[in-house]
Every structure is written in structure tokens, then in C-alpha cells.
Amino acid sequence: MIQRYRTAPLDRAALIRTVCTLAGLLGLLVLVYMIHQLAPPIMLLDAPLVILPALAYAGTPEGYAVDAHAVYIERRAMRTLRIPLSRLKAVHPLPRPAVDGALRLFGTGGLFGWAGRYRFRGLGAVSMHATNLDRLILIERRRGRPLLISPVDSDAFLSGVRRQFETIEVTARHG
Q1: b/e map of 59-68 (b: 16 or more CB within 10 Å)?
Q2: Tens digit of pLDDT at every position of the chain (175 positions)
Q3: What is the DSSP string of 18-85?
Q4: Please, are residues 6 and 13 in contact by the beta-carbon 8 Å criterion?
Q5: What is the C-alpha separation between 119 and 98, in angstroms, rounded?
Q6: Shortest CA distance to 81 belongs to which of 28, 139, 35, 14?
Q7: In sequence order, what are the residues at sequence separation of 6 or more whose Cβ sits closer than 8 angstroms to the Cβ of residue 71?
Q8: For position 172, what pLDDT does the model report?
Q9: Residue 42 burial (10 A CB sphere; 0-12, 13-18, 19+)
Q10: Distance between CA 81 and CA 64 in Å, rounded?
Q11: How far apart are CA 158 and CA 19, in angstroms?
């Protein structure tokens, strides 16, 4: 039986970045539309202004799921990521200070959440599929880069993983 977990709401930083980015892009779209009256080829600049935020939204996690075989990261308009339980090494909470000073290698920096590849001191390269940096769960794999997710109820998610696969290390939230 599959157990589903909602994503945490956007944290303050992601919400501010999303609103500011979309407002700025809307302003640019209006400016490009106004300028296109003088130079029609300028309308070609509209495509990235629409496509890039659409791709960011499409990759945003919509929810997470766990069944007897895998952990799933369900995204809004992109394919669901499947991580077989047999490939998990550990699953545990990650405190917010652990992500301070992260370097974004590729992905969104708060636009609709935190998605893409990041480099963290102490963790190395990590794939993020999160919406809230205060509710992070680190999924370490036997091979491959670790994943960061942010379910609304991290304790329920950890319990769900524990129920499905008792042989991996699942550390409960401290504090």
C-alpha cells in the first residue's frame, strides 16, 4: 500500500523569491511588449521569460510517497522520481544550519521551492526536491548523490519509511 505525504509549504525565503521573481518577469514581459512596437524582433525575448519559470514550476515537488518498494518524489509536471528502498543507506532530518552557505550548481534558487543540484559543506553534491528549508529530510543512497526533500510532517514520513523498510537506518528528529 502506498503512503502519500504532502510537501511543506514554501518557506519565507522561497515565497519572497517566487513573488519577486514573478513580479520582475511580468514587468519585463510588459516592457518587451511595449518595445516590440518599435522593434518586432524583440518579442523573441519573451520565450525565456515564460519558459524558465514554467520549467521551475513543473519540477516543483507536489508530494512524496512510500510503498514497499520505493520512495517517490512526485513533481507537478515532470516525471515522478523513484528511489528503490534497496538503494537507501539512511534517511534522517537535516537541520536548517546544515544548508547555510550552499552553492547552487543547477536549478531553482527558491523559485517555487528548492530544486536542482546543490553543493553543501560536509555533504558534497546533493539533489534537492524541497519547498521548505526548515523541514528537510536527507535521503542518503548507497550509490548516487543524496536527496533532500521537505514533507510537511517529517516524523510521519520517517515512520512511513521505517514501516516499509526496517533494514535501513532511519533516525528520528531530535528536539
Answers
A1: bbbebbbbee
A2: 889 999 999 999 999 999 999 999 888 888 877 777 766 676 677 777 788 889 999 999 999 999 989 999 999 999 999 999 989 999 999 999 988 888 898 888 899 999 999 999 888 999 999 999 999 999 999 988 999 999 999 999 999 998 887 655 555 554 4
A3: HHHHHHHHHHHHHHHHHHTTT-GGGGGGHHHHHHHHHHHHHTSEEEEEE-SSEEEEEESSSPPEEEEG
A4: no
A5: 11
A6: 139
A7: 64, 65, 82, 83, 85, 88, 91, 139, 161
A8: 54
A9: middle
A10: 10
A11: 31
Nearest to 135 by CA among 156, 163, 121: 156
Q: What is the pLDDT at residue 19?
A: 95
Residue found by looking up cell 548507497 in the block? 142
Question: How far, CA to CA in Å, does 150 sit from each of 5, 8, 16?
Answer: 10, 6, 18
Biggest alpha carbon distance in the chain? Answer: 66
pTM score, two decimals?
0.84
Report yes or no: 157 and 150 within 8 Å, Cβ to Cβ.
no
CA-derived radius of gyration, the chain = 18
Task: Check residue 134 and give its pLDDT.
Answer: 94
